[in-house]
Write a structure and sequence with these properties.
Layout lengths: L1 E2 H9 L11 E2 L2 E2 L1 H11 L19 H9 L1 E3 L7 E6 L7 E7 L5 E7 L5 E6 L6 E8 L3 E2 L5
Parallel strand pairs: 1-10
Antiparallel strand pairs: 2-3, 4-9, 5-6, 5-9, 6-7, 7-8
Length: about 150
Amino acid sequence: MTTAEHVVIAARSWKAVRFHHQGRGASGIDCAGLLIVVARGLGLVPADFDVNEYARSPDGSMRRLCDEHLIPIPSPEFGGVVLMRLNDRPREQHVGFVGMAEDGHLTLIHADDARAKCVSEVHLQFGRHMSLVQAYRLPGVVYGGGA
């Protein structure tokens, strides 16, 4: 049984790996790649599963892919995924995992191309720089409120 905690532990194991568009490994990874390698590692998708029909620039493809492969939920939750729009961009095009800090605040574990240039974890905060588009659960994961 895969739990939300397993998801967060797996996502955190990629921290400090450098950002590389459409990267899928330890030498470089992007935000969608992080989702894919975590899902593969947890056995949630086949080992050869990949999705690469998305552009580097926001074009709406990330929303379509998330809606196709993930389960929409009303708000972010521990172990889930968030789709975001960076507010200097016209459309959504960034995804990450939701973790939790020791102080109880939700965090964002993501492949950051803008600031850290690697997989990092920061407090999850929507506002001037980033807007929530949709929150999701991963199919096959047991969350606190059920599967």
